[in-house]
Specification:
This protein has 10 helices and 12 strands. The chain is α+β, with helices and mostly antiparallel strands and 309 residues long. It folds into 3 domains: 148 residues, no CATH class; 98 residues, no CATH class; 37 residues, no CATH class. A hairpin with a 5-residue loop joins strand 3 and strand 4.
Length: 309
């Protein structure tokens, strides 16, 4: 692990750029965004003065959008000179090798036995292995899910066999015969089962893996870079105190959720609103920001994924 640059500065007898001793990191970030308080200041110094630290990581009380807004604020305050203010030292003076967090595997990350590849329209090298799957068309069920290895939404199909809806209580305990109230349900199940057994698997799906093997050389948005660098999940599962959902939570639920709610809190996904990185000072993050900016000339590197054309 590289020695934190702030530690190097201390060994060289340099003084901190900011006296933030009377402000928390969150208060310091707000302070820096006001009244030109970052004008003429290195981005590394600004980022290093508004973070929490541990022996191995740094943490910011910001989400990705807020971090991007902070960096844009620094650029606005230094609009005529910010390209000279990323860091006190050049990247090649501090690192033998420094790269953006590209995806770069030697083989398919989903299955190492996959061998086929394809280059998509955006220049990413993807796995082109596919499996031909056949289903009975009347019993196909599909759902949409985000594939982390492919970095895209995909539709997953499976075949759902009819399930017998009749349980033990549906039979007369003395005679063992099916109670009349359940006869229609049982007959419907029998029809579906017969159809299932006789139907051909004529619904064909080419199920491509499409996992990203490498996107090295592609232009990355700052949003993507931060997502790949942070070790903080975007959301955390929060449970209401006392098992039952609070009144505020109930009001936030949709009608369907309230209808299904059984009086027990099963948890709610809350944004974490923190960013934690596996390096030890803000100067390192400034170097990643510089590398992001310099991908394209004239400040054209995309801020967000949606900006990539």
């Amino acid at each position: 692990m590289a020695i934190p640059y702030e530690f190097i500065r201390v060994l060289e007898g340099k003084q901190p750029f900011f006296d933030e001793s009377k402000r928390s990191p969150k208060e310091q970030a707000k302070y820096l965004l006001k009244n030109g308080n970052m004008t003429g200041m290195y981005l590394g110094a600004c980022l290093d003065s508004c973070r929490w630290g541990s022996q191995t990581t740094v943490l910011y009380e910001m989400n990705i959008t807020e971090m991007i807004s902070f960096i844009r604020g620094w650029m606005r305050q230094n609009k005529d000179n910010f390209q000279n203010l990323w860091h006190e030292r050049r990247i090649d003076e501090l690192y033998k090798r420094f790269e953006l967090p590209y995806i770069n595997h030697e083989s398919c990350h989903s299955n190492k036995e996959h061998t086929k590849t394809i280059r998509d329209c955006g220049g990413k090298l993807r796995c082109a292995q596919f499996e031909i799957k056949k289903f009975k068309p009347s019993f196909v069920v599909s759902y949409s899910t985000f594939d982390e290895n492919a970095k895209l939404e995909r539709v997953v199909c499976f075949e759902k066999e009819p399930q017998n809806p009749i349980h033990d209580d549906a039979y007369n305990k003395k005679t063992g015969k099916l109670l009349k109230a359940y006869e229609d349900d049982f007959n419907e199940y029998q029809k579906e089962l017969e159809q299932f057994e006789n139907e051909d698997k004529s619904f064909v799906v080419n199920d491509y893996c499409y996992s990203i093997i490498s996107d090295k050389g592609n232009t990355l948005s700052l949003e993507t870079i931060l997502k790949r660098l942070t070790i903080t999940p975007e959301t955390m599962r929060i449970h209401c105190p006392g098992l039952k959902c609070t009144f505020k939570r109930l009001k936030q639920m949709s009608k369907e959720e309230r209808w299904l709610y059984g009086g027990i809190c099963f948890g709610h996904d809350e944004p974490t609103n923190n960013l934690e990185f596996e390096f030890m000072d803000g100067w390192n993050l400034a170097s990643y920001t510089q590398k992001w900016y310099e991908q394209l000339p004239h400040g054209k590197s995309p801020w967000f994924d949606k900006d990539i054309k």
